[in-house]
Design a protein that fits this description.
With 393 residues, the protein is mostly beta strands. The protein is built from three helices and 30 strands.
Length: 393
């Protein structure tokens, strides 16, 4: 989100406003109850009013006493979670303040170290600055989807992420699963040129795994003027363990469920001049009907052919698809890198392989390594190579 025209862009580097004493301060309403014993003095940071700097946590303290309750809500009525210290004297939000948001803080405390003195309660309100840019993200897979066992968690940012901010963003993201699965985040340059971070398991997910992804990103600075304005929470389920293996010299695609072969399809892979790229690819999408246009993969206007049951592997154009025009299926590899089949066989592969399934290409003459960002190509690297992509070392 850009600052509206006619308004001055504010640099987000100024210091926090001073702490606000709740109970004896201008702009706060407080009520002191007539209990015996000392009284606690409640303070909140950042202070009240407007123009509060972004990227700061909210804290509430009870000087000379113990907090008995703290409630923080934003202007949409959402509760800001936080944690009370062990001694009960302070509370700190789990996240940071978001841009262009008004927060209301309500605190109650009792005086004395034992928290048995006078009770004081107060309310304070403050508003944060607007962000020059709000950085949003697009997550794959979508919330509630069922995917294949090779699917990574992929998060695409709509604004650039400064390298110096990546570690904090990565710390704010969390993947949990049932059963528990080992994995790691890695920073990727998407085929579109945008920044991306993916989480891949060390090995393929077990079938039936339930995955939860949370991003405590509100108020986190992404650099280059961008800030995150909200938290993210989505989940997905891993379906059956379905995958395929293409043997290029054998002109075949074999489908597996678990370790059991469930069918083999003959077809045509890339020619010696345009061999199909090797390694383990991830199904990134599907389309029941599509026109294969040579211009989209760098071959000018040589052909436009209607195809069906298209299963996408790379973003640059490596697909599984019907090729009814090819009279050499099972005999000769003569495509421009895709694996072509009869229309009936292409539908078998299309129906069998879910988005997120893996397709391994073996025995190809191609020496080109597919970049990780060219689709969901996280399996093109070894586990040790992948871990080096983390900003946390």
């Amino acid at each position: 989100m850009h600052v509206g025209s006619g308004r001055r862009t504010v640099l987000l580097v100024s210091a926090l406003l001073g702490s606000l004493a709740l109970g004896a301060c201008t702009g706060c309403s407080g009520e002191q109850k007539a209990d015996a014993g000392p009284e606690a003095r409640i303070t909140v940071s950042p202070g009240g009013g407007g123009d509060v700097a972004l990227g700061t946590p909210i804290s509430v303290k009870a000087d000379g006493g113990r907090l008995t309750s703290v409630e923080v809500k934003d202007d949409k009525g959402r509760t800001v979670p936080g944690e009370l210290a062990g001694d009960g004297a302070s509370w700190t939000s789990h996240g940071k303040v978001g841009p262009h948001t008004t927060y209301t803080v309500r605190g109650t405390a009792k005086g004395g170290r034992d928290g048995k003195g006078k009770e004081s309660s107060a309310t304070a309100t403050f508003t944060t600055r607007e962000a020059p840019e709000v950085n949003k993200l697009t997550n794959t897979p979508g919330n509630g989807e069922s995917v294949g066992t090779g699917m990574p968690v992929s998060i695409l940012f709509d604004h650039p992420v400064d390298k110096g901010k990546r570690a904090e963003i990565e710390k704010s993201l969390k993947v949990t699963s049932q059963p528990r699965v080992e994995g790691a985040w890695g920073w990727v340059k998407d085929y579109s040129g945008k920044d991306r971070i993916d989480w891949r398991p060390k090995e393929r997910w077990p079938a039936g795994t339930k995955v939860s992804v949370k991003g405590a990103l509100t108020g986190v600075d992404s650099g280059e003027g961008g800030w995150f304005a909200r938290d993210y929470d989505f989940g997905f389920t891993v379906g059956a363990d379905r995958r395929a293996v293409i043997d290029v010299p054998a002109h075949s695609l074999t489908m597996y469920e678990g370790e059991q072969k469930v069918g083999t399809i003959i077809g045509s892979a890339g020619s010696p001049e345009n061999p199909t790229r090797g390694g383990i690819h991830t199904v990134r999408g599907k389309n029941p009907a599509e026109t294969m246009d040579s211009a989209t993969i760098g071959f000018g206007d040589q052909w436009k052919l209607d195809s069906q049951w298209v299963t996408y592997l790379t973003a640059s154009g490596t697909f599984l698809h019907s090729a009814p025009w090819n009279k050499s299926l099972g005999v000769e590899n003569n495509s421009h890198g895709c694996f072509g089949m009869t229309t009936a066989d292409a539908k078998k592969a299309y129906d069998f392989l879910p988005i997120g399934a893996t397709v391994e290409v073996k025995n190809t003459s191609s020496t080109v390594k597919t970049d990780v960002g060219n689709g969901l190509e996280v399996w093109q690297e070894s586990w040790d190579q992948w871990r080096k992509r983390s900003a946390l070392g």
